[in-house]
Amino acid sequence: MSYWISLITSLPTENSTVRMRAWRSLKTCGAAVLRDGVYLMPERDSYRDLLESIAADVRLGGGTALVLRIEEPSGADFINLFNRSDDYITLLADIAAVRDGLLSDAQLDILKQTRKLRKLFTSIADIDFFAGEAQRQTEASLRELEALAARALSPDEPYPVEGVITPLLISNYQGRVWATRQRPWVDRLASAWLIRRFIDKNAQLLWLESAYNCPTEAIGFDFDGATFSHINGRVTFEVLLASFGLETAALNRMGALVHYLDVGGIQPTEASGIESVLAGLREAITDDDQLLATASSVFDGLLATFQKEGS
Q1: Are 295 and 193 in contact (CB under 8 A)?
Q2: Is residue 105 predicted with pLDDT exceeding 70?
Q3: 133-163: buried (b, 16+ CB within 10 Å) or exposed (e) per residue?
Q4: How far, in Å, are 140, 158, 168, 289 from residue 234 at the CA level?
Q5: 223: which residues sit within 8 A by CB, 6+ positions away?
Q6: pLDDT in the model for residue 76
C-alpha cells in the first residue's frame, strides 16, 4: 500500500498571475500532473508543507485548493510519473557536446559551460525523488567532464589519487619551507593562506617554476607527488584541513568554495564574486608573494563572515 500527497486546485480563468505562479512552483518542485488541476508528490512532510503553501496562495488569489493524502490505486504506477530519464538523456548529450569542445581551440568558455551543466544536473536531481541508474550515470559523466575541463584549462593541475588522509600534528610542521607551483590560483592561494594562518605561522613559501625542482627539504603542496595534494576527490585545501584537524564549520565552508572554484561541483552562493576578485588580483599582481598577501586579506574577511554567520 502506497500513499501520496495530492493538490487539487482550481483558479478563475481571469487570474493569470496566480495561475502562472502556482504552475511555476509546481514545476520547480517536480510535482507530477495526474490531470488538469490535480498534482501529486511523494508523501513527505516537506512536500506536504510545500503544497500547502501553494494551496494557500491559490486561495488568496480567489481560487479553491485542497491538499489530501491519497492511496495509490492498484496498478496505477505513480512512481513512473516522476521518471526523469528523458531529462538525464538530454543532459548527457549536452555533457558530450561540451566534452567534444575540449579538443578544439574554443576552451575559454568550457568552465562556464561545465558549471551550467552542474547547476542543471543539481536542479534535476533535486526533483528526482526515486533516483536510479540514469542519475548515477549522468553524475559520473559530469564528474569526468569537470576533471577533464580542469585538466584542459590548467594542464599542470594535480591528478587526484586514492588514499588515506593521515592525522598529523601541527607541532611537527613549524618553521618549515613549503613549496608549490608559481602563479598560484585558488587552491594554491587558499592553501598557502591556511598554512600561514593555522599550521605554520613562520612558514617560508617557495614558488616553483617547475614541480620537478622542488627541494628535498621542502614540503610540497598542490602538485603531483607533493606531500599534500588532491586525495579522494578533495582538493589540497580540504586535504590540509583534514590532515591537521582544522575542519570547523567556517573552514569547511571555505573548503567547499575552493573545491568548486578549483575543480567544479556544487556552486556556493559567493563563488562568482570571490572568483572575480581573485582573478582580478592575479591579473594585476605579478609578484606571487604580494599576490598571496593581498589574497590573504580576502580569505581573512571571508573566514570572519562565515564564522559570524555560523554563530
Answers
A1: yes
A2: no
A3: ebbeebeebbbebbbbbbebeeeebbebeee
A4: 16, 11, 17, 25
A5: 156, 158, 180, 181, 208, 211, 214, 229
A6: 87
